[in-house]
Design goal:
two-stranded antiparallel ribbon; globular; alpha+beta
Amino acid sequence: MPLLLLRPIVKATVAQRDTSAETIDDVIISGGSFHGILQKSWRLFGGRGKCRAVRTDGEWKHVMQFRPKKKVVESTKSE
């Protein structure tokens, strides 16, 4: 079963840097397919912000943006 780790952030503006945005708790979403995972993520986070829409073949579709992160586990420095 596919799993997706989401680390959602909330930005005040589109131009705000990702590092200065408010970070919401990490969520692991599972589903039978990637499409199912996307639907679950919309149910969880769709109401938290303004959505963009794209018109494809005469129909309006919602868009959710994902940015891959190379390191899943955050490293910390200890002296």
